[in-house]
Amino acid sequence: MIKTWWKESVVYQIYPRSFMDSNGDGVGDLRGITSRLDYLKNLGIDVIWLSPVYKSPNDDNGYDVSDYQDIMDEFGTMQDWEELITEIHNRGMKLIMDLVVNHSSDEHVWFQESRKSKDNPYRDYYIWREGQDGHEPNNWVSCFSGSAWQYDEQTGEYYLHLFSKKQPDLNWENPKVRQEVYDMMKWWLDKGIDGFRMDVINFISKVEGLPDAPNHGDSRYAWGGEFFMNGPRIHEFLQEMNREVLSKYECMTVGEMPGVTPDEAVLYTADDRHEVNMVFQFEHMDLDSGPGGKWDLKPWTLHGLKDTMSKWQRELNGRGWNSLYLNNHDQPRLVSRFGDDQRYRLESAKMLATFLHMMQGTPYVYQGEEIGMTNVRFETIEEYQDIETLNMYREKRAEGVPHEQLMKSIYVKGRDNARTPVQWDDSANAGFTTGTPWLKVNPNYTEINAKQAINDPNSVYNYYRQLIQLRKQHEVIVYGDYELILPDHEQIYAYTRTLGNEKLLVICNFFGGEPVFTLPEEIAFGEKELLISNYEVDGAGEIGEIELRPYETRVYKLK
Ligand code: NOJ
């Protein structure tokens, strides 16, 4: 396995709108980020991933880009951005930017031109089709509800939008589009950035003819993923991008890839294929979704988690590379989803962090995770801001689904759970802004905040610091082979990592009970060292049988 810096790094994701507001307009901004860089450095972060900061009308909070080479007004200026990257580099950290090129905003000049006439030079930058018998060109449903097609009066045709109707899909079949994207990427890399996180990048190649999706439900629209996820030309496009752009720079790339399998992930990330460095896969994020999709709630199970995580650990080992995450700006807070965000918030947040950071792959920390921020419950739908949530609510209410049922799903899965402002201290609005925040702060900020966490040796923040340090000290954490132990245990998730004659033993009690961990006989060792734990532990104590406390976690190094 090739050893490189991006395998050894820990990445921190910033969702700029919610990170830190420097000018009192209620919206986070670039200068706000710059003001908090020491906090990230102190945490031990190597790489910052910035969610989109480009010009945008904010239909989807910046994932609808109207100018890829300019900064969103609310976030500041290009000069602020230059200052940010300089300060990041001054501290020895790196910066990767979000690359959102499956679609642009409908306010991008390319689309403004494209919609003007059928013979406009930009027409083929997007995916336009005639309707069929007064209907959309096919039956695909948008990821944000409703048809994936929007009729445009001006030319009497429909355009494809896999997300909101203000996010028209770019036509990657058009070589001019690809060239524009590559030029833009080079422009940013020449400005000194260290790589890209690529938004739904495995959606860019659509199956020719855009066939109807098989429809099993009663809606007119159906999920057409098989016709655009990991499509026919995806590897060709990514290899071209790599050849034209990425190979010319020392940079890192992570492709967000819903629906990717381990075998496909190997194709995307194997060193000799020259596509991207690692993927964000979603299988573990789907463990608590029923057949109706993310809003169709179903409890996750420890067996499901073991199966999924272990499969990815095994199948990518030595063949590709994975990223490790349990939440981000699209997912609920990890401690609320997989832990106990009340009685055992500290213990379970630390256990989940250990569980994740000790696996093979590059760990990602999403802002606020490091202080154990939790999901939020707003009383009214009006307090929510996210387009996915609001579209779903509107559509399902129109179908007659009761308000209470929808709010329940939103409390568990809504994206605004992760987007409430970062809780910096216990002053008004959690110290995020002196104005009115664009999305309300979680009322628990008086207890859960960064100021408290930095000063408390027992905090989640200080635990993350330790975890991140360990990664720098023990190669086995980065490169070791993974093996699941006690596969059938109902409460304990335990595994080992092995590199040469070193072995890590990772023990995680996933629930509030007190199960006994029994060390499998085949794990023989001479010396042991306790690397980290979330309760007081006598490091010299026997480990053949351990009575675990609620959400207890320990990592031993065995030799
Ligand atoms: C994935 C992003 O993470 C999400 O926030 C966004 O809404 C969609 N892609 C569309 O860009």
CATH architecture of the largest domain: Alpha-Beta Barrel
Mean pLDDT: 98
Query: What is the subunit organization of this protein?
Result: single chain
Number of continuous helical runs: 17
Structural class: alpha/beta
Query: How many independent structural domains?
Result: 3
Largest sheet: 8 strands, parallel
| Widest sheet, order of strands | 11-10-9-5-2-1-15-14
CATH class of the largest domain: Alpha Beta
**Fraction of residues in helix:** 25-40%
CATH superfamily of the largest domain: Glycosidases
Which residue ranges are poorly predicted, with pLDDT under 50 across at least 5 consecutive positions?
Answer: none
CATH topology of the largest domain: TIM Barrel
Query: Which molecules other than protein and nucleic acid are bound?
Result: 1-deoxynojirimycin
Question: What best-fitting shape do the alpha-carbon axes yield?
Answer: globular
Count of distinct strands: 22
Radius of gyration, in angstroms, nearest whole number = 24 Å
Q: Alpha-carbon distance between the termini? A: 22 Å
Beta-strand percentage range: 15-25%
